[in-house]
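Quick one: structure tokens for this chain, please?
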Amino acid sequence: MKNRFKKWQFSKAVFSAIMLLIAVNFMSCNDDELFYDKNEPEWLGASIYQYLEDAGNYETFVKLIDDVGYDEVLSKTGSKTLFVANDEAFSRFFQNNPWNVTSYNDLSLAEKKLILNFGMIDNAYLIETLSNYNDGGTLVYGTAMRRQTANTASDSILFDSYQDVPKSGPLGNVWENNFRNGMYVVKDNSASPIVYFFQKMLTTNGISNADYKVISGKDRSGDDADVFDIRVVERDIVCKNGYIHVLEDVMIPRDNMAEHIHKNPETTIFSDLLDRYTWYQPDYDLTEEYSLVNPGFSDTIYVKSYLQKNFSYTMNGQLLDLDDYLLNFSPGANDYSQSRLQADMGTMMVPTDAAMDEYFNEGAGRILKERYGSWENIPDDIITLFMNRHLRNSFMASVPSQFDDMKDTENSAVPITTGDIESSYIAVNGLVYHTNRVYPPDDYVSIYGPVLFGEKAKVFNWAIRQNDFRLYLNSLENLYSFFVPSDDFFSRYIDPFAFAKDVKGALKYWYNNETNTVNATVYAYDAATGEFGDSINVITNANFLSNRLLDMLDNHIVVDDVENGKNFYFTKENNVLKISGSGTNLKVQAGNDLVNNTDISVLSVFEQANGNTYLIDKPLQTPLRSVYKVLSETPQFSKFYELLNGFPSTSNSVVFVRRTNYYGIDYNIRFFNTFNYTVYVPTNEAIQELIDSGELKTWEEINAIEDATEKLAEIEKMERFLRYHFQDNSIFIGGPTVNNTYQSSTINLDKPIYDTRYGTYINKYFKIGVVQDGNDLFLTTENLDDNESTAQVKKDEGLYNIMARDYVFNGNPSAYREIDGSGSGSNSFTSSEIITSSTAVIHQIDRVLKFE
């Protein structure tokens, strides 16, 4: 401070300013009269009113002060900051203004109040200090851009006729029915702030002159100061009760963002969409205040705002469920800010009517037109996604120099450029960019779009919403293929948990239009004949349905283009789909569809920005057979199965398990862990040959060993031998060609790397070399003996590419009540859950695999 004082020239004005600030510090925040003193020292200078009167070129503004009855206040009391305009500015104002007044005499008393109060701030601020603000006792420097004015809600009460009352939107019928005679409203009951662009704030926030040019349409340079887009031509005029700052033009109150959009004849479509989110709330305090001034007034005044996030809404004592109809913020809130009012405001990108029409009729929005016919017919929850894409919480993160990095609230890029902006409007609560382009949400252009818009995809849309799948499907960074069963053809889907019970069941999912949720009808299912019985129950439990449909969703999504000829594709849940053809001629089957030779037809294909959405005539049914089931029921696998199934139940080496964390349809593989695997099954002859050679003992021989240590060693040897036939990653014959090594399930405990073909380190899993050329599959093991290190899949009996799935449920299916709906609580069928699963493809090979 010492250095700074040395640079000051102690003129009378500067000294007066210092004394004014000292006086202000001792002044009561609640009682301006304490500052009044009839015997102020002469050096303190004139009052604000006296200065304007003496200057001679503020006659219009002085008359305005007189008419409003504020002459005494600005003559003797308080500490004010006042933005004024001179007579020349008023002369220009009367030639062209939004109020259509042509002379001072045309101004109403309310309009005079608006001009005066909107340019008045309580307390005295230099231009430089207006960029600072107090945040809970901490002075924050250089970031302020807004300040509350003396403008009050009672100055701007309007009457909305029945024609003005919104009749669409989630609450449109409520307003239409309750306000047929219109209503008195204020567009917001908070004071209107001014917005200013001073060098200190611009520098602190990295806002360039080029940014301001786009924001305001005007050039600035050096230390220019602007209020909205009006230049300050004379600043920091010191008076005994505050400061005067002279503006180049007359400043009248600005609209908030919502009102500006509503009044703009070029944004009527967007304005109509915004009106859907109107919320009216009675303001009894304002009504009483207004009635005191207007004794004949007997109506209620309502505050108009907009449904917004982080707010709850009640009507007649009931909490409204409006989660899908909330905007990022209310563009009608004058005092809107993301954190502190002084430091930020909102931003809206508002496409012109021409841009909206072009998007809807000729651009990417044609899918909306084909589905709904007009903007008015698009459902509210779908429009909410569109609106929020165009509402930005922070002005500071939305200036033109930030456009390249601009993301929406879901972290998706917004492709706006300065070339998109036709004009801008600085409102009291934010900036409005008028754009010649629409920025549709990712929901509209992603593989989710056809589901969101689809009249026949309500079941999957509900499942997506319930399981928060929108963001995943909307990712434009990946390429997807999404299979969506049509509601019209949603056939019975065999429930995997019910399949594990004595009475097996299938579920037909359907959308309940009365409750706007999904239900499922339960049918008995005969696994032996493949026939469905009568319906025996209807399930409405949302948690149960959400869990089952989540599993279905995971297995109807492929992160790939399924028309590239690979034939086999992994779903998100590690299941595999067999696919051939293209477009509506695509043939797709999941594991159980292949077993039952079920055909799935593609009804429609939608080409989206991140892949294709295929509407299909029935859900894809993943495998219902576990690895245990396939091995135990296939005679050609019997020797391998007997070895796997021979471990003592108390042994840590046991392979097939059915216990906590492993409950499935029957038995699960203990060392599977939510991944996809390949199981190589040697022929019965190859297993028997190994036993006959003495290299492998039978379980009968092992169980006959009396020495416990020796017996344990043989059990561990058996486990390591068998686990070497289980490999990470599923490899299909006919799938993408492969020439690679994959990890087995057997760990190298003691072999040096030079004694293994693939240089496997100790305590790492042994590998298997795999070559799949599209027709055959060949294996090479870690064994360095070439005569015993290779194997080939046997295709002659068709025992290859067999799909299996090991489910993991939340409990033992036998402990739950039957599927007819009997029972409740933790043991009811509807409390069952699919926790996870592992999948495997099984091939028969011509010899055993050896790692030593």
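The longest strand covers residues 834-845.
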